[in-house]
Hints:
Blueprint: E1 3-9, H1 30-37, H2 44-48, H3 51-55, E2 71-75, H4 84-91, H5 108-118, E3 123-127, H6 130-144, E4 148-151, E5 156-162, H7 168-181, E6 190-199, E7 202-205, E8 210-213, H8 221-227, E9 232-235, H9 238-241, E10 249-251, H10 256-267, E11 274-279, H11 281-287, H12 292-311, E12 317-322, E13 341-346, E14 355-359, H13 363-373, H14 385-388
Parallel strand pairs: 1-11, 1-12, 2-14, 3-4, 5-6, 9-10, 9-11
Antiparallel strand pairs: 2-13, 4-5, 6-7, 6-8, 12-13
Amino acid sequence: MKRVILIVLDSLGVGAMPDAAAYGDTGADTLGHIWQSCPDMKFPHLRAQGFANVDAITAAANLGTTAATGAFGRCSEASKGKDTITGHWEIAGLQTDVPFLTFEHFPEDFIRRFEKEIGREVLGNYPASGTVIIEDLGPEHEATGKPIVYTSHDSVFQIAACTDVIPLAQLYEFCETARALLTGPIQVGRVIARPYIIEGGRRVRTSDRRDYSVPPPEKTLLDILTEADRGVTSIGKIHDIFSGCGTGTSIHTEDNAHGIRVTIEEMKKDGASLIFTNLVDFDSKYGHRRDPAGYAKAIEEFDAALPEIQAALRPDDILLLTADHGNDPIHSGFDHTREYIPLALYGKNVRPAKDLGTRTSFADIGASVADYLGVPATAHGVSFLGEIL
């Protein structure tokens, strides 16, 4: 059975798109700037799979091309936005022409309704880094039981709480309440639960994050595969991003290492034609926190695991590595950046050193996966399958 193992290295963009200035992201280059900041970063397996070739065209990176073992290229984002949902949906063949709403501060009438529904006041309601705001408002939250709400320049409403103060199940209920209220003219892409604990005197976010997304408005690649009974395994936050639509067997992960381990375990099983993994640490732990050294280490850790992933491939499998947006840790602010995403494919059926150039949409990925797996085409995207086999 043919399979595709699609791994999203969350936020590992490869250079600013031509319209980056409209998003405040002129000059962004996540991979290039990480390498520039950490020139001793070692990622030989990713480079061999074509990442050096993809990013060598950007101004900041002088990685030097290699004789790639697989096909490579980059994809432009056709959708409006630079958020997680928009990127993943477009990868799966759904284009977003009207960007999700973002807020500096959520409207007071919504906040008052939310407070009434949950039976308590809230703290915050301003854009912030999640790790910073729990330090700033944590003491008051822990003393009063008021949850911390905040946003970013992404389309999100985030609720942070210490689980010793607001138990996890109750925090999830608060998020479900917010999701039900954030509709119509105040609809955002995601409501996110951000639980933390106090450990050794420090406030530490846990792996029990949960995202409550709006459902995709149209069928995606995942729905098409599910309807064709081809089997989908979703690893990491894929289930949350697609609001469970077509996500099949879903496995929550604690961090990148766990996500990699689960992906390899699932590759050894039968049943799923698509194994769709999101590795979120690149974005949440290092991009948003503007930590290039930590990001570089995470790249090295994935690179070290890549041979084991490749070794688990079956003869008809294709491994496809990509991203969903950028999050340049050298860039100003603490949010996503409007960038091209890498495209790197590997497998016995994949033509080595094939340069796919710049694709006009992330949706070319979904179109190509559908083409390879023999299911109906996605609504958007042009298959590059004929170029790589």
